[in-house]
Structure formats: structure tokens, C-alpha cells
Write a structure and sequence with these properties.
Layout lengths: L7 H6 L1 E2 L2 E2 L1 H14 L15 E4 L8 H12 L10 E4 L5 E8 L4 E2 L14 E18 L2 E19 L3 E8 L2 E9 H17 L4 E10 L5 E12 L2 E13 L4 E12 L1 H10 L1 H8 L2 E2 L8 E11 L2 E10 H7 L1
Parallel strand pairs: 5-7, 6-7
Antiparallel strand pairs: 1-2, 3-9, 4-5, 7-8, 8-9, 8-10, 10-17, 11-12, 12-13, 13-14, 14-15, 16-17
Amino acid sequence: MTFRPTNSRLARGYRSGNEESLPYRCVRDVARTASNRPYNPRPLPPRIGSVFLLSQPDLPDTPEALARAIETGLRRFVSSGSELVRLTGNNVRALESLTVNLSGARVDTIEPAARPQVRDVAPAISVGELSVNADPISVFGSEVNFQLDASGAEFQQARQPGDHLLLLLHRARGGQVRIDVARVALEQLISRAAGRLAQKQGVTIESVKLSLAQPEPRSLDAQVAVTARKLLFRAVLNLSGTIRIDDELVANVSNLRCSGEGPIASLACAAITPQFARVEKRPFPLSALPLGEVKLRDVSVALAGNRISIAAKFGSAAELDRVA
């Protein structure tokens, strides 16, 4: 996207002759940091616990080989000095347990994963007890706690481009998932992720300040103040919006606003604001893939002090109906 000020007087003030002046280039680069990539929401690396990506086209023949394949796939997205995967059971198609321990692991990449292909699926494995624990996992240097437990889990398989195999959760007798993060960790996460993108434009993110309020269950009002610098020029952008999470663990964003201090920030907001309408029209699934017959219930969002928790119970539709 090429940044062009809409106010002609401001435009003349930031241009010199036929050449872009230094202040104008700084404004342009700050704006490009937030708006140079078209909005195209893609899932994060496959949602750990419900999806495993194997770096081979076929299901391994033994539990030991399956454990190695799952671990190799996880290490495409996380780094750790410890063993990540443990399996019990003698039949690769019917495992007693599958445990993934991501405590102390790190996620350091912001490159999105390719969108998985799940058109043609077939039965793969069953797991008596599934457990995924990250207490905590470091995401761009920010600590996030994650816990998923399920019983009677059944996975399907789907071939992927590049000779990969995807295992995705299709059915479960019951389970629960919980994500917990501190507000300061979210500030660090936003700052580091935005900083890496900003570096491509020669922009430095100096600080990020996040304020949260919970006006109603499953909703959060967020205000983010971002201070960015290009050479000697500094802009402070104030971004705000509302996030609502529905019964399907889908986040919807609304009421996005941008304001700033000074003409540089105003011009940057003018470039960023057109992206807001597209963001507000598109949902953000917190579950990366359709989960077959697995349905969520009792979804909750809690803001307690400086910590945010999202929790839900899940199971196959028939099991949830029987419990209800």
C-alpha cells in the first residue's frame, strides 16, 4: 500500500518539491508497519492438542515412531531442550495415552503456517487419555499458560501438500481447555510481534501500553497505546476496540478506533483506519480447524486483576447431549 495523505495542506507540509521529505517518509513507514499487509486472517500454527502435523505422508507403524513424528512436527513451531511427547500403549491405532509437555518451550517465529487441507479425511488413531500442558510456554518472550485434557479422543488423518500428514481431533468423550496470560505478557507479545514487523520499515516500537476492561461476560474492551519512532520522528497511536468470544470459541472484533498525538500520528491513523472495516467483518477462530463432532460448552472469559483466562469444556455432540 502506498501512503498518501488525504489533507492537501498536510501533504504539502510534508513534501519538498518533487521529492518526499524525511518527515513524510517517516509517516509513510510508520503507517506501512500496520497497513502494508492485506488483511487475510490465517490460523496460527496448528492448534496444539487438537491438531498434529507430521513430516511424512503416512501414519507411522509403531507408537515409538508416531511419538517421534509428532515431536518432529511440533519442533517446526516450538523449540525446547526437553522431550515433548510421550505415548503409552502397544497399538499405534489405539493408544492408552498421549502426553505433550510444552512447559519451558518457546515460540519465536511470527511466520504463519500454510492453511491446512482437510477435505479428504480418514480414521487414524484413538487415545484413551490426551494431555497437553504448557506451564508456561514462551511466545515471543511472553509467558502463556495452556492446558488441554481429553478422554476417549479419536483423531482423523488428512494428507497435506509436501508429503505431510495432519492428525486432527474428530471426537472426544469429554475434555476441557484453558488459556491463561498476564496483561503484561500480552503487552510484551504485542510489542515484540509488532516490533518485528516494524523493523522491515525501519520503524522502532518504543513502548506498548495495554488496558483491559470486561463490560460483560465473554467480552473485553481493549485500549492499546503504541509509541513508534523513525529516526528522530515519533508517533503515539491509541488503538481501541471490543473483542467478543462466542460459543464456538470464535472471537469477533468491533468498535475499532485509532487516534494519535500530533500530525504524524493523525496521518498514520488515516492509513490504518481503512483496514478496520475488513477486520470487523471477519471472525477470528481461536480453534484453528473444524473439530469434527467435537462441540464446545461453558465457554468463559475472566479478567481477574492483571490476568486473562479463557476456558471451555468440550466433547462429542452426543456425549454433551447425554450429560445435559
